[in-house]
Amino acid sequence: MLDKINKVKREHIIKNGDESSPFAISLIDICKSFGPVQANDAISLDVTRGTIHGIIGENGAGKSTLMSIIYGFYKPDSGMIKVAGTPVSFKQPSDAISLGIGMVHQHFMLVPNFTALENIILGSEGKKGLKSGLYAARKKLKELSQTYGLEVDLDSITEDLPVGIQQRIEILKALYRGAKVLILDEPTGVLTPQETERLFEILNALKSEGVTILLITHKLHEVMAITDVVSVMRQGKLVAHTKTKETNSEWLAEQMVGRSVLVNIQYPKGNPKHIALSAEKVSVTDKRGFDSLKNVSFDLHAGEILGIAGISGNGQSELLSVLSGIIQPAAGQFKIAEELFDATHHADPQKVRQLGVAHVPEDRHAEGLILQFQAFESAILGYEKSPNLGVKLLTDPNINRTYCAQLMDSFDVRPQNPTLLSSQFSGGNQQKLILAREISSMPKVLLVGQPTRGVDIGAIEFIHNTLISMRDSGCAIIVVSVELEEILSLSDRIMVMNAGEVVGTVNKQDATKPMLGKMMAGMTLNVAEKGV
Amino acid sequence: MQASRLPAYVDILVIPLLNLLTALFVAGIIIAIIGENPFTALSIMLKGAFIYKGGLGYTLFYTTNFIFTGLAVAVAFHAMLFNIGGEGQAAMGGLGIGLVALGLGGILPVPIVILLAIIGSAIFGAIWGVIPGYLQAKRGSHIVITTIMFNFIASSIMIWLLAGLLMAPNQMSPETVSFADGVMLFKIHQILNSMGFSVARSPLNLSFVLALLCCFAVWVLIWRTRFGYRIRATGFSTKASAYGGYRPEWIIILVMAISGGLAGMMAVNEILGVQHRVILNFTSGYGFTGIAVALMGRNHPVGIIFASLLFGALYQGGAELDFEFQTITRDMVIMIQGLIILFSGALAYMFNPFLERIFLANKGQKEPENG
Amino acid sequence: MADFWFQFLLALDSSIRVATPLILGAMAGIFSERSGIIDISLEGKMLMAAFVAAAVAYGTGSPWLGAIAAIIVSIIASLIHGFACIIHRGNQVISGLAINILASGLTVIIGIALFRQGGQTPTLPKSARFNSIELPFAQYFADNIPILGVVYKELISGHNILVWLALASVGITYYILFKTTFGLRLRAVGEKPEALDSAGISVSKMRFQAIIIAGILCGLAGVYLSTATGAGFVKEMTAGKGYIALAAMIFGKWRPVPALFACLMFGFLEAVAARVQGAEFPIIGEISSDLLLALPYVLTVVLLAGFIGGVSPPRAIGQPYIKER
Fold it and tell me: Fewer Cβ close by (within 10 Å): the C or N end of chain A?
């Protein structure tokens, strides 16, 4: 019965959609909660046909949940969705797909060992069997890619293609299913600036062909660059809605966080002293034989923060892993506290830690903590051998609990309960606990990966201040972050990485955002400066 | 492995009991279907396991086997390794005992031979555990598949040796000659009788004490040593383990050695305690039962002791059923074991949504009063 | 020399017989594991099916009714596996193990209750079994055409219908897996279930379909054991064949045709083992058939360890599918 109604609706929308409503999608009072968390709170929104509509908000603001509701992945607890003016209810994504809604997920939904073509038709193979389905699709896709400038080699294996191309496959997948509304969830997170530019060209081409685009992002400059209309979400609510032309990024940022933010706090410059760590031509080869780090050389001084900028996946993670002894260099060497490590004399995390290097890892959930451990157990990860935590080979839970309570007290970790599971703390509190653990060893060198990813504003300030005061007390610090603002705000010097190589290093006072952006795309310092 | 929001006592006590009862309920239905009275069967089993003369001794004898194999599975589980090779490791443990006892028996003093034989069982079991561990850690082969294969390989080796090189002369069945006099462990009833207590004969021997010692040792290892901390860390997150500098590969290899060693020591109970020679198939599925025991006992030594006792009673009571019923044999115990693995293992969280509704609903009513 | 060739031919012939349940089991494994569900319960399903096939064939006198009942029971076992692993997201290895252990207890208990013969079924009369089919002119060709005629008679003719079914299942599996829409989706669900889910196809439904097919194939393997090669059910009659099928599937790298050759190779090893018992060979001396029988397991371990080329199982295997937030 329901199917029949849907079918009628579908025909109606396909036939009359164009005249009946100026809005491709309308949301009315959408609510959705997961247990105690109200992910979407009475969201009402109209999306005009043929526009690029930006949805912006911090991590956890409820953007992705809202999009999943539009895509039929979740059912709203209450509220109504209208597609082209007609009320609809989605039981599963296929309902949304059949009404012309397509989605490009943040993490691609592609089968790695399928060809591009197989991925595109998966789930919409047609009724005439696989062979003729593939044949028909090839013809249709040729037209589509010509219309929108989406060139993809349909017969290459997906996992061998660069991410930018994989994303095109995702877009083609949606268009192939007749998408008139395209939702893109954080599409630029994995792209180089050039790929991003290319994506924006494609989106504009789609728009000019009448496709409606919903762009979810937390990057202000992207919203300013490409959208027609922008909606801001904060803590599950829609807090602002405006034409992009009539606003500016400062105002949007304020709306995102709910108070005026001091964009780019300028910390006083540090006072660099002796060299605490130096790397010389360090290279890393991964399991597939790919060089993820190539000839990286630099010096790190006590009392300075060296910021490492780059699009994620350009060797920053590997650099931190090498310096902390988790992986080994294929060539080159690095020196910590007069001890030299290279491809034959291996560093390992325990040894490096003893030499006074602490490490706040990029991936808090997989590396920094053990989510299933109680907080007091996570609080000694890597330090369980330390002599004040038990006798010889044994460990004593009582001592560990007391120790953890002290850490929590001095770093304001809340709730202050060492026996809670590590997973029961918020991102910010987890990060503070890790920072507390690492800093309490009084390190000479501190390696920090993504210090504030997924961390609330209050904790960001705390973490930044902690890092600065560590620096001022003479610690040598490396900060890896994909957030340029953070790098610009914290660092004394900035080293930019691209494709595993160091593109260049600039002093804080000489660095500008556009220049760093170009360097992140691989242009050398000279070229980047000329362009400014 | 999914985080539960239920109170701890529900997690530790209510859920395992509920799972067990479901398994027994299904078993009861099957008994009824084949035309017997499940309650009569239950009462016969309980009497056989605990009340009849020597019953308790036999029950504890089987319990001993399950403690060893259950601990073996549990230790590996803490490193998130699924060792289903207990059967093969125990068989190799028996071979270890046999080689020591036959090679050194009569040459060295008896207590030393016994000690070396026990060590031999642990070492042989450990070797049979460490190879799959090594292959998993260094070559990426799936430990479940490798340990399954190793069970079959161990079985082939045992057949080959016991029907060949080690076969007792003038014997028809595949087994070794008996060990030298005295190369055996004291029976508990002998010890107790000599102390003036009157206890019925049973195969229960000093291995039981060894098993309890192993329980304590495993508890200390997992929850009170730095190495145990690293094992648990590695089990939950290999990446975090690498970050901590614990070398997850080595942890996997060492844990599999310990696990295999514990499974191997099961042979002490059967071979050194009772048979006094190596026979074929003495493991008779106890290695697999260890999986059920570890699952029911939630990988904790105390839980494992209770779960082993349950299975010990099932085995002994099952033997009693053999006498009483024409239609029920010890295969009934195997079936119950399968049901327990199904309900306490694969369907362990089946009741969680239901229980969460009950317990969290109550909580929800209380909250307004508090606030 | 002629005698050697004849012996070799007979060994090949019996390899096919031994390999038949392995082939069916391996194809079952491919369906299940390609969809992302580890299936170590091949053994248990075969055992249950073998019992039911013999019991029903004995009761009704029809091997066909026996086969149908066996397939139904094997599917039910698959559904239990699916209930635990797909609906309740239980551990797939544990669930498979439970089914295996349950099967070995249950078959004997019900067997005793029904037949009172210590867990066996009574011997089946010829009419209640699947008998070998002599192909036309077998004897005539053997007498009149040198070599090929003998090959035709000894190797190709004289198999029962399940042997042919097993061989056909390889081609069918290949076709379904690589040439149909269903196969495309099946492979996708074992590699990246979220891709299928986001395309609007139900992951659970795909996986249930896959394990039901696995159930049917395991059912046939069991039918073969008790009502085609055997004349009735014997306690533990699968004797690890489900695990060897699993090994063959891995050896064939989750692909139907290579898995077929692995099954034939393992079958050949077993056939040879039965013939070399006690025989002396030049240079190598006496070969132990016990150790020869362990060779499939050893080879699988060696293969898995990556000493013979790389092996990559379906990427999503063993992981229950949970919709992410």
Answer: N
Contact assignment for B240 to A349 by CB distance below 8 Å: no
Q: Which residue in B2, B160, B346 is closest to C290 by CB distance?
A: B160
- Whether chain B has a CB inside 8 Å of the CB on C239: the answer is no
ipTM entry: 0.89
Q: Measure C35 CA to nearest chain A CA, in Å.
A: 13
Say if residue A260's pLDDT is above 50.
Answer: no
Return d(Cα C228, Cα B238) in angstroms, integer.
49
Flag if C94 and B291 touch (Cβ within 8 Å).
yes
**Residue C146 burial (CB count, 10 A):** 7
- Is A315's Cβ below 8 Å from some Cβ in B? no
Give the pTM: 0.86
User: Given pLDDT bands bounded at 50, 70 and 90, which one contains residue A5?
Assistant: low
**Which residue of A109, A117, A170, A175 is the best one to mutate when testing the C interface, meaning the one whose CB has the most C CBs within 10 A?**
A109
Top CATH class, B42-351: mainly alpha
Chains A & C: contacts with CB separation below 8 Å: 70
CATH architecture of structural domain A49-72+98-257: 3-Layer(aba) Sandwich (3.40)
* Minimum-distance CB partner of A393 among B227, B236, B239: B227
* Residue range(s) occupied by CATH 3.40.50.300 in chain A: 49-72+98-257, 275-365+443-531
Give the nearest chain A residue to C186 (CA atoms): A122
Query: Domain segments of chain B: what residues?
Result: 42-351
Is 70 exceeded by the pLDDT of residue A204? yes
- What is the CATH architecture assignment of A275-365+443-531? 3-Layer(aba) Sandwich (3.40)
How do beta strands A305-309 and A493-498 pair? parallel
Enumerate residues 171 to 230 of chain A having a beta carbon within 8 A of any beta carbon in chain C.
173
In A, which residues are within 8 Å of B227 by CB distance? 393
Chain A within 8 Å of B285 (Cβ-Cβ)? no
The C-alpha atoms of residue A165 and residue A272 are separated, in whole angstroms, by 43
Q: Structural domains in chain C?
A: 11-130+138-304 (1.10.3470)
Largest pairwise CA distance in chain C: 72
Length of chain C: 325
Is the pLDDT reported for residue C325 higher than 50?
Answer: no
Q: Which chain A residues are closer than 8 Å to B229 by Cβ?
A: 377, 380, 384, 395
pLDDT, chain A, mean: 86
The amino acid that residue A369 corresponds to is L
Phi, psi for B134 (deg, rounded to 5): -60, -45
Who's near C318: CB < 8 A, 6+ residues apart?
C36, C38, C92, C93
Q: Give the per-residue pLDDT at A530.
A: 60
Does the pLDDT at position C152 exceed 70? Answer: yes
- Kindly state whether B245 is in contact with chain A, defined as any CB-CB distance less than 8 angstroms: yes
Is A123's pLDDT higher than 80? yes
Strands A181-185, A212-217: parallel, antiparallel or unpaired by DSSP? Answer: parallel
Q: pLDDT tens-digit profile of C4-58?
A: 777 788 888 889 999 999 999 999 999 999 999 999 999 999 999 999 999 999 9
pLDDT of residue C140: 82
Any A CB within 8 A of B250 CB: no
CB C44 within 8 A of CB C101: yes
Number of H helices, E strands in chain A: 18, 20
Q: Residues of chain C whose C-beta is under 8 A from some C-beta in A?
A: 179-181, 183-185, 187-188, 191-192, 194-202, 315, 323, 325
Tell me what the mean pLDDT of segment B275-286 comes to: 92
User: Rounded to whole angstroms, how far apart are CA atoms A424 and A371?
Assistant: 8
Tokens of B247: 């070398």
Q: For tokens 């001022």, what's the residue?
A: A472
For residue A56, list its beta bridge partners. A217, A232
C113 to chain B, any CB pair closer than 8 A? The answer is yes
